[in-house]
Amino acid sequence: MLPILDFKLTDTEDPARMEAFARKLGAACRDVGFFYLRRHGLEPQFSEMFAAARSFFDLPEDEKAKLAISAVSNNHGYVGLRTEALDPGKSIDNKEAFNIRLGPRGEDKIDLWPVLKGFRETMGRYFADISNLGRGVHRAFALDLGLPADFFESRLDDPMSTLRLLHYPPAAPQSRDAFGAGEHTDYGNLTILLTDDAGGLQARRRDGTWIDVPYVKDAFVCNIGDCLMRWTNDVYVSTPHRVVNPAGRDRMSIAFFLDPNPDALVEPVPSCVTHNNPAKYPAIRADAYLASRFAATYGFQARSHA
Q: What is the domain-level CATH number for residue 264?
C-alpha cells in the first residue's frame, strides 16, 4: 500500500507537526514517488466535479470537436479518443480528455468552453482550491529538502498548471485498446489526481514491479514529476505509471498538474548537490522544458505519417 499522508497536519502553528508531515512526504518521494493525500478539505467538491466532467464527455462528438486543443496553442481544449501516445513506441492511448488552463485563482487565460450550465464556474472554483493545496504541499517539499519553506512560492505564483478531465472507455483485457495511458512519467512538479473507484492506475516500483494504485475514498493520489526531480537532482525520482482500462465499465479521473512559472529556472537546488551527488542537469527555463515534453507526446502523429 502506498503511504497515506494527512494534510490536516500542516494546518497548525506547531512546527513539529509540519516537520513530521514533511519527513513522511520526503520519504514517499524518495521511495515510490507516489502517495495518497487525505483530510485536504476539497472532498465536498468531488461529486460536483465528476458530474461536470461526465456532462462534458456525454456531449455529441461534433460539439466536443469544436473545442479541439489543436485550435489553440495553450494546452487548453478537447483531446479526442486515440490522439495521444504517452508511450509512443508501443501504443496509442485509449482515452479522451478536456484540458483546462486558468490562472492560479481560477481566472480565465483563454475563452474555450462548452455550453454547459455552471461548468466554467465549477472548474474555476476547483482550480483555485487545488492550486492552493499544491502550493501547500510544496512548502513541505521545501522543508524536507532543507530549503526555506517559501522557496517555491515565487516559482509557482503564475504557474503553467493544467486541470485535465479524463474519460477511459471500457476495453477487453489484453486487447490493443487495453492501455488508456501508456507508461510514462509526468512532466512538471506535482500531480494531484482524483479518481473514481474503477481502478486501473498502476505504478512501477524501483525494482521494476508494477503495482496497482487502488482507490481510497476521499483521498487524492499524488505523484511527483520530472521538473521536481530535476530540481532535487534525483533525490526525489519521478515514477513511471500507466492506466489499464477496466473491462466492462468506463473510468473517470480528474488530474491537476502543478507546473512551475514559465520563466522559473529549473536547476538542482544547493541542498541536493554534494560531492557524491554532483549536479546532473543543466539549468533550463520551465517553459522550454515542458514544451519539449509535450512535443514528444503530441508529435507521434506527424512522425507516424512521415
A: 2.60.120.330
- Single out the residue of 114, 204, 235, 104 nearest to residue 162, CA to CA: 104
Q: What is the mean pLDDT of residues 276-286?
A: 95
Q: Which three cell numbers stand for residue 165?
A: 478531465
Task: Work out the average pLDDT over 141-158.
Answer: 96
C-alpha cell, 290: 515542458
Q: What is the distance between the alpha carbons of residues 2 and 181, in angstroms, rounded to a whole number? A: 20
Q: Rounded distance, CA 70 to CA 297, Å? A: 14
DSSP for residue 159:
-
Span 33-68, pLDDT tens digits: 999 999 999 999 999 999 999 999 999 999 999 999
Strands in 219-271 per DSSP E: 220-224, 241-244, 251-258, 265-266
Residue whose entry in the numeric block shows the C-alpha cell 520563466? 263
Task: Dump pLDDT digits (tens) for 221-280.
Answer: 999 999 999 999 999 989 999 998 888 899 999 999 999 999 999 999 999 999 999 999
Rama region for 142: left / alpha / beta (φ>0; ψ in -120 to 50; rest):
alpha
- As given in the structure block, the three cell numbers for residue 139 are 512548502
Question: How many domains in the chain?
Answer: 1
Q: Which residue has the cell 497548525?
A: 12
The three cell numbers of residue 31 are 521511495
Closest CA to 163 of 244, 41, 42: 42
SS3 per-residue string spanning 82-110:
CCCCCCCCCCCCCCEEEEECECCCCCECC
**76-127 tens-digit pLDDT:** 899 988 887 677 777 788 899 999 998 888 888 777 899 999 999 999 999 9
Range of the domain at 201: 4-304
List phi, psi (to 5°) of 218.
65, 15
Report the amino acid identity of residue 115: V
pLDDT of amino acid 297: 59
